[in-house]
Amino acid sequence: MRLRVLGCHGPYPCAGGATSGYLLEKDGQALLMDCGSGIFGQLMRFTDPAELAGVLLSHLHYDHACDLLVMRYYLEQRGKTLPVYVPPEDHSPFRELLSCPAFDVAPYPEELSLMGLRITTLPVRHPVPCRALRITDGEKTLVFTGDTNDCPNLAGFARGADALLADAAFLSGEWAENKPHMSAAGAARLALEAQAKALYLTHLPVTHDPETLAAEARNVYPGAQAVFPGLVIGL
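Above: the chain's sequence. Below: its structure in token form.
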């Protein structure tokens, strides 16, 4: 497997950047995790969106899903329908916007198989229904937290991950129990408890230097790294 970071900011992008979007590639096939602002243009650089095996949406906040509304035009012109998976509890107006021939929208099943990968999900703490994703090819495992604050079951879900892609939207001094995201240090504590082999920080606020967030995480989990558009993570 290979994970390509297309965008990593939240809740809005930097100039010329993009919010949440990650392209997972294996054996000449690809699936997309999240499709936030600016992601469709980045995606076009690396693959034909009409040939994706599917789109996995952690949740339906706009910075994770809004570029699907642009992708719709492309798919309609190509006469293609793309599988899109969403949290089953979400019945928001945005989900209704995805109800069109370009998308086959379905709730996450208990276990999903795409591209020979086993995909399972976990509900996490966010103001709207959100899912963490665990993806394995039988040898290597990627876990993406989606957007979440500290979540009691998440460390077990991420246990032994070869790569943990974790929400790290705050510095410790900004974080609070009622916030919608983890801090960089919180992501590091999660990686440590889960015994993850590598930690990658994402959902990075434009207002902070990513290296400042990474440095805070490294105080807890040495080797933590903030992602950036264009980063390729080999698994």
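The longest helix spans residues 68-78.
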